[in-house]
Amino acid sequence: MSPHFRKGPLSRAGFIGLLAFAAACHDDASAPSIPPRIAVVSGNNQEVRDGSPLGNPLAVRVTGTGGRPVGGIQVVWEVTRGAGEFYSFPDDQHVTPAVSVTGDDGVARIDFFPAVIGQTEVSASAPEVASAAATFYVNDRPKFEIVFGPFFDCTPFTDPSRFSLNNSNEMVSQVNVPTSLSYYHGLNNACTARVKTTSVPEGGEAFDTGILTPGEVFMFTPRVAGTWELTDVVNGGSGLLIVR
Question: Which of 45, 109, 136, 186 could make an S-S bridge to 57, C-beta 3.0–4.6 Å?
Answer without folding.
Answer: 109
